[in-house]
TrEMBL record:
<dbReference type="GO" id="GO:0007059">
    <property type="term" value="P:chromosome segregation"/>
</dbReference>
<dbReference type="GO" id="GO:0005694">
    <property type="term" value="C:chromosome"/>
</dbReference>
<protein>
    <recommendedName>
        <fullName>ParB-like N-terminal domain-containing protein</fullName>
    </recommendedName>
</protein>
<dbReference type="InterPro" id="IPR017819">
    <property type="entry name" value="Plasmid_partition_RepB"/>
</dbReference>
<dbReference type="InterPro" id="IPR037972">
    <property type="entry name" value="RepB_N"/>
</dbReference>
<dbReference type="GO" id="GO:0003677">
    <property type="term" value="F:DNA binding"/>
</dbReference>
<feature type="domain" description="ParB-like N-terminal">
    <location>
        <begin position="62"/>
        <end position="153"/>
    </location>
</feature>
<dbReference type="InterPro" id="IPR050336">
    <property type="entry name" value="Chromosome_partition/occlusion"/>
</dbReference>
<dbReference type="Pfam" id="PF07506">
    <property type="entry name" value="RepB"/>
</dbReference>
<dbReference type="InterPro" id="IPR036086">
    <property type="entry name" value="ParB/Sulfiredoxin_sf"/>
</dbReference>
<dbReference type="InterPro" id="IPR004437">
    <property type="entry name" value="ParB/RepB/Spo0J"/>
</dbReference>
<dbReference type="InterPro" id="IPR011111">
    <property type="entry name" value="Plasmid_RepB"/>
</dbReference>
<comment type="similarity">
    <text>Belongs to the ParB family.</text>
</comment>
<dbReference type="Pfam" id="PF02195">
    <property type="entry name" value="ParB_N"/>
</dbReference>
<dbReference type="InterPro" id="IPR003115">
    <property type="entry name" value="ParB_N"/>
</dbReference>
């Protein structure tokens, strides 16, 4: 008969009592050994029940295959396997082992688990081909989010924009702002700032820039102020697609510099009659201004009036010097 311990992790994902696995009929036993075997079986069943209860309370650590783990429904990081912090974690776990367990909950699919926190440690375990130490706990969605956020707050290793992106993903998933505020450990006002920056800069551009560990709220807000119209957003997206941007050591600074280099496109002023007929357009730039005629009759009229207009301008300048 198989030991119930063999299927412990599958068992804890099921509601209801533990059931014995089907097995071939055991060999015939002497009467004395039957009693001993029954006591052993009962002991193992009770042990499984006790361990299942401990796991549900998060009181013990188990080892799981990292390929049996699903990410949280709201990612809190901008992944980059090449960054120094991740590579440092790989070397630390390779040499010293995983010191801090992750937190998971049973997933809807039997035998699988969903990560509450510890996504990087799972990625390291996959990289090294080892199992990951975990605490298994039954959590509601809100409990998972709060545990995920508070773990990050305690470790202080999420960047400003990663927190903003995490908040935006949670909000888009329908999570209440009150829960998001608790998870991030911020006031509702600061949460609003996080969400506004992501909505203005856009998740697409943020993901292209990356985690930007040295960039705080002030500089992200300054970038958002530059990207408040669709033309600026389109131009920023074009910049992020260039090889220079993709190979830049500081992508945030590179984008800001390129945006600053772009000359402001002057918007023409329409010249219309009271009836709304377009006569021409006036374009003013630091380098000079120009008048573009759109109506032949008005063009001829203005051309005939130019000598008079020049004389009127001179008279006005003489009367109002300076």
């Amino acid at each position: 008969m198989k030991s119930p311990l063999k299927n412990l992790l599958n068992e804890i994902t099921k509601a209801g009592p533990v059931t014995a696995q089907a097995s071939p009929p055991p060999p015939r036993m002497m009467a004395g050994s039957v009693k001993s075997f029954g006591e052993q079986l009962q002991h193992e069943v009770e042990e499984v029940k006790e361990i299942r209860e401990q796991i549900a309370k998060g009181e013990i650590i188990v080892e799981l295959d990292p390929h049996d783990l699903d990410v949280s429904f709201a990612s809190d990081r901008i992944d980059n396997d090449d960054d120094e912090a991740f590579q440092s974690l790989v070397e630390s776990i390779r040499s010293s082992g995983q010191q801090i367990p992750i937190l998971v909950r049973p997933a809807q699919t039997n035998g699988r688990f969903q990560i509450a926190f510890g996504h990087r440690r799972v990625r390291v375990a996959r990289t090294l081909g080892i199992k990951v130490k975990a605490v298994v706990r039954r959590l509601t969605d809100d409990e998972l989010i709060i545990a995920q956020g508070q773990e990050n707050n305690a470790r202080k290793d999420l960047t400003y924009i990663e927190k903003s992106l995490f908040a935006w993903r949670l909000s888009n998933s329908g999570v209440a702002r009150e829960v998001i505020s608790i998870a991030l450990g911020v006031s509702k006002t600061h949460l609003s700032d996080h969400l506004t920056i992501i909505q203005t800069v856009t998740p697409e551009i943020v993901l292209k820039i990356g985690a930007a560990p040295s960039i705080g709220r002030t500089r992200w807000q300054a970038l958002a102020d530059r990207l408040k119209n669709s033309d600026a957003i389109d131009y920023a997206i074009q910049i992020t697609a260039t090889p220079d941007f993709q190979t830049a050591k500081d992508r945030f600074a590179h984008l800001v510099e390129r945006l600053a280099e772009k000359k402001t496109v002057a918007q023409p002023t329409d010249l219309k009659t009271t009836a709304g007929i377009l006569l021409g357009q006036f374009v003013s730039k630091p380098s000079g201004s120009r008048l573009v005629m759109r109506n032949r009759r008005f063009s001829a009229y203005l051309e005939a009036r130019l000598p008079d207009l020049i004389r009127e301008f001179e008279a006005d300048q003489n009367n109002n010097p300076g």
